[in-house]
Design brief:
Structural class: mainly alpha
Oligomer: single chain
Largest sheet: none
Order of helices and strands: HHHHH
Number of helices: 5
Helix content: 55-70%
Amino acid sequence: MATRCHHIDEPDTLRSFHNFVAQQLGYAESTAGFANMILAYVYGFSPADIDWPNFLSQPISAQQHAQAVELFYRLLKAHQASH
């Protein structure tokens, strides 16, 4: 993860959460990070063939942001329940 490359401590909970989100949403890997994966999923990009530069250039509406926040909390709750 990028945080490790830059010697930034990350809570242990989040380390496994990135992988959990990738698995739950159908991403092959978690290197984009949970926030980007959740936003891209809400936006409608396919996890199987996402073009990250294209995704990152898209505007996110307030409604999509709210949906992403709701999905984040649902996934976090499911992750905590599984550990």
